[in-house]
């Protein structure tokens, strides 16, 4: 007990000082500082209460002569009063000071003073707008009636204003900048689904209208929106994920939506890792329809694995997916779309697979696992035969490209022909065409001969606006991925950057 | 039923007394009885919340009482104002006693023990007075905090959080009053008009007319009242009253900002008709001063040209059909005047000219 009271005394000094600095928490600095200490201060109040309730009012004054100051200053700080249970504990402390039967003027005065403070905490809110007070009184409402509605309206308007400011990069210079803590926004989103949905839709609008094909900017907007951080809470993640799912379905897999979802997932994973060493929620709560082991493999960061060993997780992913998707008896882990959707979150793997295939072109037989993965990611709805066909086509393209690599007659026309001619001479299905275009672009970036004719090939390839758009997207995504993985390829990087700048300039 | 009504009346008296110095005669036992009574009435509220007939009778009695006290007047209500207030009459009583300096020390000490028994009653917090009072303090602080650090008056008045809240409260109250007495809302609004500052009242009215159609808000009250609000009907009585009182609608159209009125007119065609009628009326009061080359009025209450123009300009920026209606009105007035194209002869010509060049 003695030890506790010593500890309490020194804490007491600390807090009295803090409270003096904070005053009414009217400046940004004092507000931020107050908010940092709210939980600890509440704990201190609890300890004070435990000590005070054992004493009568005279003992209290003896033991803590400046208790009046402490309690009065606490009452004046609305941040403290608004936090969790602090106001309740403060009231308990004040109750300890009330004397049932004051014997002298000193005790009477203490009673009077304490009652004043209690009144102050619980008194009706005197807004500095006389008219609102008058109006609500005129209607016959007490503050207890209308606080919930008023709070809701104030918070909603504040959140929408903050969101607009964030996403428009608008600087509110006319007044102080208030940072609504993520926990507050999280609370709002958890309690009021429409605000969350609005936030996501707002983000979609922004992404689709202005930031196509610039993943770096998309990442900024994504982080500013606070959605990835909030999504660490599974309920929020699920809602956002659903919205991405619908967006993909409605737009039939639009590349912009895919890219945005991948950025979201990346930021989300980053936030998860930053937040806790021990994951608070099991992975299954985020991806309930997926096989947990598959999710684990997908979540691996390529950055953490030496580049030379990337083929291992790729093979694993491919094998697992193949087993799930092609084994008809296994209905549990969702159909092809669900698994494709899962893979799409971590789109980087499919891109890495394509790159791997290209960088080793001509060396050896391309691994079936990688071919399967690529074929699946570009066309999940295919039956096993169709997919096998695609894999064969891709293999043929790769070997053709490999031959051209060593051939002296390498030219833009040859390259294009290699990529575009199908074995039977029939036109390939569009998904397959997209795939071969991607392989060709990879080739251009990686193969020494390819670099020389990159521009020509692209010019020939980009027959439509849509294809041009696709190429720009590919280059942007590739650079973005290389930046994040720290891929060391200065030549390829330079080329990609130059090409991107040129093509963007043209658009 | 009668005994219930009597109880209600007597408790209302107790509630009224709780604010006066008369409580100096109260001891701990009195306080206990008062709190018990409040608890009983809360129980009544819960029990009869779904009985439309009983609820209506109680509501009517309370509203009558309130009116007799001089309800809607500038002072806060002495007693209970409506059925909903029964739901937290114990909170109301507690707050008054806590704030009343005249209450003796012993009685006050007892009150505190009853209201704030301290920790150790987990889970029961929600329903207790301790919980409600703490929540009230918390909310009060939150409002204060938001208001002083994060609030800025929204230039779009109907989206301002304070305005919106007042508007929502107004409609809620009108609904209750309407359920108790059919002609209730009109009389209630007239009383408010007499007692409250006009400017704020008019703004709140406009905001209320612009609230989105009823969503499942206040679901608790809805189920308690047993009468789901019908979408779109919320502002009906308000609109009806507004259009029925010429003094009010004139003040409404004259004093509220142009943009706000345009929004209201856009939503409610009845208002746009009256508004346009008034504007044309005001326009006819102006005459052209040849020397100065401007349109002026003769009396102090005449609406000046700039304001007239401002209002018409705002209306012309509204989406159709309002915009078209306005232009049609202006053109027809211009035609009536003789369809002049030269300025200085018909105010309508000049307005149209100014609007075209400004647009």
Question: What tags apply to this protein structure?
Answer:
heterodimer; A: 507 residues; mainly alpha; 28 helices; B: 359 residues; 3 domains; two-stranded antiparallel ribbon; 18 helices; 2% strand; Fanconi anemia group C protein isoform X3 (chain A); FANCF (chain B); Fanconi anemia group F protein (chain B); FANCF_C_sf (chain B); nucleus (chain B)
Number of helices of chain A: 28
Number of beta-strand segments of chain A: 0
Major sheet of chain A: size, sense and barrel closure? none
The rounded Rg of chain B comes to 27 Å
Largest sheet of chain B: 2 strands, antiparallel
Relative helix content of chain A: over 70%
Structure description:
The complex is a heterodimer of chains A (507) and B (359). Chain A is mostly helical. Chain A has 28 helices and no strands. Chain A has helices at residues 2-22, 28-52, 57-63, 67-75, 78-82, 86-97, 105-122, 130-139, 143-168, 182-191, 193-210, 215-224, 227-230, 234-250, 255-275, 283-286, 292-299, 311-326, 336-345, 348-359, 368-378, 384-406, 412-420, 430-446, 448-452, 454-461, 465-485, 490-506. In chain A, helix 20 (348-359) crosses helix 21 (368-378), helix 20 (348-359) packs across helix 24 and helix 22 packs parallel to helix 24. The longest helix of chain A is centred in the N-terminal third of the chain and has 26 residues, at 143-168. Chain B is mostly helical and 359 residues long. Chain B has three domains: 1-116, no CATH class; 132-256, no CATH class; 260-358, Serine Threonine Protein Phosphatase 5, Tetratricopeptide repeat (Alpha Horseshoe), CATH 1.25.40. Helix content of chain B is 66%, strand content 2%. Chain B has helices at 2-17, 28-48, 52-68, 83-86, 89-99, 105-115, 129-150, 161-180, 184-195, 198-209, 219-225, 236-244, 246-255, 258-267, 269-284, 305-316, 322-337, 347-358; strands at 287-289, 294-296. In chain B, strands 1-2 form a two-stranded antiparallel sheet. Mean pLDDT of chain B is 86; it is low at 216-231. Chain B: It is found in: Nucleus. Chain B: DNA repair protein that may operate in a postreplication repair or a cell cycle checkpoint function. May be implicated in interstrand DNA cross-link repair and in the maintenance of normal chromosome stability. Chain B: Keywords: DNA damage, DNA repair, Nucleus. Chain B: Its main location: nucleus. Chain B: Pfam families: FANCF. Chain A: This is Fanconi anemia group C protein isoform X3.
